[in-house]
Amino acid sequence: MSAEYEVGYKKPPTGARFEKGRSGNPKGRPKGSQNLATVIRRELLRPVRILENGKKRTVTRVGAVAAATAAKAMGGDTKAAKLVLELAAKHLPNPPPGAAENEHPPVAPVTWTEEDAKLAKFLREVPDVKVDDDEPQGAG
Known about the structure:
mainly alpha
């Protein structure tokens, strides 16, 4: 540069400038490093083998946790039931806005099991939850 070069705002001395082709942060984030969300997502989506109804099947870790929590809820664990109901309310699809209940296609008749009866009994005991008073058929 010429001797007339003025050092000042946005005009650093020539010796203090970044060299061409060299990063201003040479020890910065390494390539391929992952943040916590990526690591957690990878671990939760990793497959595991579970035994369900006497059969082995492969599910994700988050699926295994959801199945175990639902099973605990059906067994009468109130904390697990509350968690399952909150997650269902948050993540299961809702009917489109303005759609009346009778607009949905008819549902096949339900065969009630002992687990359904346990759940209905549990839900009657939870405040702010309304359950039909019809006793499940074939349970009891």
